[in-house]
Amino acid sequence: MPGQIHLETDSSVKPVILPPGKVLIGLKSKLKIELQRLEKIGVIEKVTEPSEWVFSLVSEMKSKGKLRIFIDPKPFNKEL
After folding, report:
1. What phi and psi values does residue 67 have, to the nearest 5 degrees?
2. What is the pLDDT of residues 49-60, one digit of tens each?
3. Of 26, 43, 45, 59, which residue is 20 to 30 A from 4 by alpha carbon distance?
4. Contact status, residue 20 vs residue 58, Cβ threshold 8 Å
5. CA-CA distance, 39 to 42, in Å (whole number)?
6. How far apart are CA 72 and CA 56, in angstroms?
7. Are the C-beta atoms of 33 and 71 separated by less than 8 Å?
């Protein structure tokens, strides 16, 4: 799904910085490889400066052995 979208937000909602999600030791190397792959194909990008909004990353193994990664954007949904 190439391209960008623009979301209108409520500026009265304060940004949230959530703590990092816990990653099982057995998933760390798979997670690193998957994040590098997603960065390489342009799905995500590395952030080199502070961000107002930080969400916890969640990772888990799917039933067929693939890694599933996602964030929990509940605090951000209040701003939309």
Report:
1. -85, 135
2. 998 888 888 899
3. 59
4. no
5. 5
6. 6
7. no
**Tokens of residue 33, six digits:** 């490889």
pLDDT one-digit tens code per residue, 39-49: 999 989 998 99
Q: Tell whether the model's pLDDT for residue 1 goes beyond 60.
A: no
Structure token digits, residue 48: 């080199």
CA atoms within 13 Å, Cβ hemisphere of 65: 0
Burial of 60 per CB tally in 10 Å (0-12, 13-18, 19+) = exposed
pTM: 0.74
Please tell me the distance from the alpha carbon of residue 21 to that of residue 58, in angstroms, as a whole number: 6
**pLDDT score at 6:** 80
